Amino acid sequence: MVAIFLLPILLAASQVKITAPGPHVAHRPGVFNPAREDRLDSYWRRAQQEDYRSPEELAAQIERDKRRGRQIPLLMRGNPREKIIALTFDDGPHPETTRALLAILAKEKVKATFFVIGFMVERDPDLVHAEALEGHEIGNHTFSHVTLTHLPTHEARTEYRACSDLIKSITGKYPAFCRPPGGDYDARVVRAGRDVGMTTVLWTDDPGDYADPGTGVIAQRTLDRLSNGGIVLLHDGAKQTLLVLPQIIEHAKKKGFRFVRVSELESSATARLVR
Ligand SMILES: [Zn+2]
């Protein structure tokens, strides 16, 4: 009798959905399998199909906004008279690549900026701690890597805030910079970042490493476009990038470039639009 009464309760309990950790997030758009590994895999499947705006498209959008008299405060390039470059790594931390990436950067004595995703940070907080400890800058790439232009402003703000709170809980510091997934931004998205105390950062160079085009292609695309004040978009999680990164860094150093974090690049920026 008891067993019959208990059965429906046990059945109901076995069907309870395990929700992913993340007390910071009131709203979590996107559909993720609650099993952590599956979440990671589905994320990477989507990341590989990601359609990033090209630097030319971004520059054209900025020009259009300027012509319409809209001043959208964002950072796309540092001082074009200084031989400085910011390497930025999106979409981490990643259990298979972050440590190796940190080892390369340490060996090359290069400081970079990591635009991390909240749900990846929750999964591997130690990796973000290690990044910060080694002097790299941590930026915000939203909590669940959604296209922010598709969200109402308050939800875009929630995406950024959830990721910032998480970063602060690990590094002790709120991030000063954010990057919208895919580079999809508009005035509302940039304002949402500002509301959470961040400047939106885009890029001047996207070698497309997330699509695994081959190490030679990544190296050539990156080196062909090296330019003063440049911001290079790379990915933490792209294995080909690990293979080719030392070559890219050494080549750039030979050409006289110095690698800086985004905050150093911003402090010398002249191309930043008016706040
Ligand atoms: Zn991304």
Automatic annotation (TrEMBL):
GO molecular function, one term: hydrolase activity, acting on carbon-nitrogen (but not peptide) bonds
GO biological process: carbohydrate metabolic process
NodB homology domain residues: 83-260
Signal peptide annotation: none
Any Pfam family matching the protein: Polysacc_deac_1
Cross-referenced InterPro entries: Glyco_hydro/deAcase_b/a-brl (IPR011330), NODB_dom (IPR002509), Polysacc_deacetylase_ArnD (IPR050248)
PROSITE patterns (alphabetical): NODB
CDD domains in the record: CE4_NodB_like_6s_7s (cd10917)
UniProt entry keywords in alphabetical sequence: Hydrolase, Metal-binding
Annotated GO CC locations: membrane
Keyword Lyase: no
Gene3D superfamilies: Glycoside hydrolase/deacetylase (3.20.20.370)
Protein name per UniProt: Polysaccharide deacetylase family protein
UniProt organism field: Fimbriimonas ginsengisoli
